[in-house]
Amino acid sequence: MSSHQAMRGILQTRLMEAGWETQTAFEGKGFVGAQPDAATPYQEVSTFFATPDDDTLAGSSGQRGEFQVRILWPIAQVRAQGIGAPTQRAEEIKALFPRNLVLTVSGQRVKVMSTAAISRGPAQGDRDVTVVRFRFSDR
Fold first, then answer.
1. In the prediction, which pLDDT does 51 show?
2. CA atoms lying within 13 Å on the CB side of residue 16
3. Sign of the torsion angle spanned by Cα atoms 20, 21, 23, 27
4. Mean pLDDT of the chain, nearest integer
5. 93: exposed, middle or buried (C-beta count within 10 Å: 0-12, 13-18, 19+)?
6. What angle in degrees, to the nearest 10, is found between the helix axes of 3-16 and 84-96?
7. Rounded mean pLDDT of 88-107?
8. Partners of 85 in the β-ladder
9. What are phi and psi of 51, to 5 degrees?
């Protein structure tokens, strides 16, 4: 397993501790269960790894990147009830990954380097979008 795969796995496992296993689509894998119906919120998880500024330092500069969770809530529910529910879910995710949190599994280390940011994204079809993202490193 590569360092990237291990780091991605550590972050995803931490996220799953809060639930929503069957309502989460992981990059390149899709949903654990069946895709949620139109009335069910879900989330999409992405991990972006930074490219070292200087390839000669790639082995010594450490791995870093950004972890992102897109919360997709039925837009009809948001229009009727407001953004309280998706915002609450975003706050729960933010609380799972406080700045300076260090997670270590099988010798692989991941440190949350920034306070998670919560932002509103453009609607995606029939879904309202809230985004939670933070930077991480293996140092």
1. 73
2. 14
3. positive
4. 89
5. buried
6. 130
7. 95
8. none
9. -90, 130
- Does residue 58 register a pLDDT over 60? no
Q: Which two tokens stand for residue 111?
A: 């440190």
In the chain, DSSP finds a helix count (H) and a strand count (E) of 3, 8
Least confident window among 34-38, 41-45, 86-90, 124-128? 34-38
Alpha helices in the chain (DSSP H): 3-16, 75-81, 84-96
Task: List domains and CATH numbers for the chain.
Answer: 3-51+62-137 (3.30.2000.20)
3-state SS, residue 126: coil
Averaged pLDDT, 42-62: 73
How many C-alpha atoms does 44 have within 13 Å on its Cβ side? 15
What is the identity of the amino acid at 96?
Answer: L
